[in-house]
Amino acid sequence: MGTKSRDYAGVNTVNNARVGNLPAARGKFLLLVDDIAYTCGTVEKIIRVMADKEDIKGVVVVVSHALLSGNGVSVLDGLYKEGLLLNFITTDSVPRRPEFADAHPWYVEVSLSPRIARYVYSMYMDRSVSDVHLEDD
User: Fold this and answer.
1) Cys bridge to 4: 17, 21, 48, 107, which one at CB 3.0-4.6 A?
2) Exposed, middle or buried: residue 81 (CB in 10 Å: 0-12, 13-18, 19+)?
3) Given CA atoms 110, 113, 118, 120 in this order, what sign does their dihedral have?
4) Quick check: 66 and 40 in contact, CB under 8 A?
């Protein structure tokens, strides 16, 4: 489990990233979950801390919205080339051309379309949308 703190006076700046119980991760694969990846500074900082201190085997990153602006793509390319990043899994909430995944083998995209369609259908049929959360995809 980890935390990060920001100084909101600056843009996209992480002041401190802490990862809890580092020794428990020693020599293992890690799953890093975040809401938004913009420049991937937080992702890189955490992966490098874990690689330096705990000799992790690799990291799978799961992000809801991958903006990947600025140098975000090059950061992830570098982590992948170093063998630290295994996969970067995100939704199609930020559209990318199919060629993007071909050019970046670490990139995995999950479509939100089926779930959104079920939400729209439930609303149209005057049903509860909370039931959509309980459905298996």
Assistant:
1) 17
2) exposed
3) positive
4) no
d(CA 89, CA 91): 7
| H-run or E-run covering 133 | helix 130-134
Assigned token pair, 21: 């119980």
Run of H or E including 98? helix 98-103
Residues 4-38 as b or e (16 or more Cβ within 10 Å = b): eeeeeeeeeebeebebeeeeebeeeebebebeebb
Residue 111's Cβ-count burial label (10 Å; 0-12, 13-18, 19+) is: exposed
pLDDT digits (tens, 9 = 90+) for 7-17: 656 655 555 66
pLDDT tens per residue across span 28-85? 999 999 999 999 999 999 999 899 988 899 999 999 999 999 999 999 999 999 999 9
